[in-house]
Amino acid sequence: MTTHAPTPAAPRYSHSQSSPLDHVTSPGAAWLVSASSYPRSTLSAWEARPTAPAVLPCGTVFDVVNVPAVFGRRMLDALWAEGPGSGPVAVQQGRMLLFASPGTAQRLPALLEWEPRADDVPPFLCHGTGDAVTVPALAPGAGKGPRWVVAPDVRHPWLPGAEVLFWACVRASRLSIFPPADQGANVYDVSRRR
Questions:
Q1: How many domains does the chain have?
Q2: For 68-89, how does the pLDDT look when each residue is reduced to its tens digit (9 = 90+)?
Q3: Distance between CA atoms of 129 and 167, rounded to whole angstroms?
């Protein structure tokens, strides 16, 4: 005989809508675990250890665009300054994970391949159908693991699609963190000096 644990009425990590951006709200957690084949048991396990990250599949509820952190920050700035904002965003191991609408993992690389202005976009990964990603904990812990920059806070968050992320990539590639080189400067090769 199989018994199912009842779904908890109010998770222990519950936060109000005015909680910091690095905390996942109860509706946000429900959205995240809806990507799992077993959302109720995934949520129960996660509630038991709210400071532990989880591995969730991509492709049905969300895709993830995985870019270097500095470039991702520029993309995020472009999304918020010149566009509709972003969906959930996480960082881990020097990379930024931008949650996107399903299908983005397949379409975004194709869009960038045909765009000559996207030559300066650094290599990135797209996680879609058949892939899984490690998502940060429901509540921040003391470790150095993945963390939320913009945590999911609603049951159906807005997720940017391939076209929105394409233009964010193009805009971010135009922004340089280094000042332009002085074209009249003398450049010396010092690699052979002793």
A1: 1
A2: 999 999 999 999 987 788 999 9
A3: 23
